[in-house]
Specification:
InterPro entries: Homeodomain-like_sf (IPR009057). The chain is an all-alpha fold. It is built from ten helices and no strands. Helix 4 packs across helix 5.
């Protein structure tokens, strides 16, 4: 029996506890699943969401359930986003090696904002991606390895500045103009306009 079921009224389906973000149906389903013979990790996910929904602070949830701040933060964010039904969709401790599913999730995370997952910072670092994915998949890899994987996929945790993006688009335009020029024996002076001005 978990600490949660034995110590918290929130596990009682008839509880009149105010709900913070779960719908009555989501709450009922989670409570029902809690009665099943679940693996401890799955049980903890549900307990985190139910406790958070009843107004228990993240710190207190970590004390009650002996879970990490990252884990509590992640599953609270899932519940707040209305995705409580996905409690059993993230595999526990499997696979133990990086696979397609892991890489897809890494790509999804790095293209999104850490704020969507309850973090205070605006941009991912390899270290935080590693921590977050370890929480979801149970696979622990170094931040150096994360950077290698991102590089292989042509991604990076470093966001391009708008100035850099503008420079890149100018370079692209320059390539196209050069190609046109070389395949077309027009006089050179026709192509000597200022590329920067055409982008306004």
């Amino acid at each position: 029996m978990s600490h949660y079921s034995s110590q918290n009224k929130v596990c009682d389906p008839d509880s009149t506890q105010e709900s913070k973000f779960l719908t009555p149906f989501q709450r009922k389903v989670l409570l029902k699943n809690l009665q099943a013979d679940l693996q401890p990790e799955y049980r903890r996910r549900i307990e985190i969401m139910l406790l958070a929904d009843s107004g228990t602070s993240q710190t207190h949830i970590c004390e009650i359930l002996s879970c990490s701040q990252e884990m509590a933060r992640y599953w609270i964010a899932v519940a707040e986003a209305g995705l409580a039904h996905k409690w059993n969709e993230r595999p526990i401790g499997r696979p133990k090696t990086v696979n397609h599913q892991y890489l897809e999730r890494l790509k999804e995370l790095v293209n999104g904002s850490p704020r969507d997952y309850g973090y205070a910072f605006a941009n991912w670092t390899a270290q935080w991606l590693s921590k977050h994915l370890a929480q979801e998949f149970g696979i622990e890899i170094s931040d150096r390895h994360i950077n290698r994987l991102l590089k292989q996929m042509g991604l990076s945790t470093k966001k391009k500045s708008s100035k850099q993006q503008a420079t890149d688009s100018l370079k692209d335009a320059g390539i196209r103009i050069c190609d046109l020029q070389s395949s077309n024996n027009q006089p050179k002076f026709l192509w000597s306009f200022n590329l920067a001005q055409t982008n306004h």
